[in-house]
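Q: My collaborator sent me two sequences in one message, no labels, and asked for predicted structures for both. Can we handle them in order? The first one she listed is below.
A: Yes, handling them in the order given. First sequence, followed by its structure tokens:
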Amino acid sequence: MQIENHKEEVPFAHYEQLFRGLDPAEASSRTGAKWDGKEFYVNLLGREFAISHPAYAIRALDEGNLPPLPTQTFLLRYLLESKTASWAGEWKTFEPYTTDRFGIEKDQFNMVHPSGPVMAEALRLNIVPKPDKAVGILEVVIE
């Protein structure tokens, strides 16, 4: 693959190479992703994808468009790194990147990233303003 977009293609190529060495049974057990001996079946935001292994190929089971390359990289990282956490009736807190900074200055905008792939059935944002202060969410981007 000739790399044209380093921001997207280099990370994808890295995780695609790691994916070739993935133990499918272990990954299926660890993540809960279904493995049929040829493909993993992964649900992302209501869409199901089949990912073949060891040679990576992805297909949308709803026959819709394939996700963009950053999302495909996310799915590879999910299969390589994620662990299933069963719902125990409590919300889980994710650790942000250590480089994330949260400011409180006027007109300050904060961006928060998870420290690794997060697969979830629900998302809750809990924002508690200081007394007599206002807060808001400008944008939430979920890939």
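Q: And the one she listed second?
A: Here it is, processed independently of the first:
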Amino acid sequence: MAEAIVPTETSTTPPATTPPATTPPATTPATPPAATPPAGEKTFTQAEVDRIISERLARAKTPPAIETPTPPDTTIYETQIKELKGTLASARIEAAMSASGIKAERITRAAKLVDMDKCLDEKGNPSTEKIKAEVDAILKDFPELAGTDNSQGFRIGSDGRQMPKAGATEISSIFGNKKG
């Protein structure tokens, strides 16, 4: 390491008797006076400031508490679902009875004979297969529910029966058919 060379004062001029105007007066204190807070303001010690800062940092690190919402009352919805499943099952039962040949005027009354519990699957939904089996069982017990439609209304085409011979010759002669 090299030593630093410091210049020394070698001047031989005598000191001045009056001090320069730029130097401060000798009555200034060495330490500045403590600042006094204005009246009504609170002052904190270093320990209080440290405690306040650590509390705020702790709050900033922890997420705010989130309230978990209370679940809604589902009993109302469960009741409505059960009612709708019953309505759906009734409609499917009536459709199955209509498809099975039960007379239209007897379907509503015959539907009351169906055991609804036997028509539902494990989840409580209407099962088409179980409804069909239940309708078939009712038709087996009450065959009079099904029947042919005896109405004499308008029909297109033949009903598949043979015409009597007497009526056939009259109709044939009307149309000009030759006896064969």
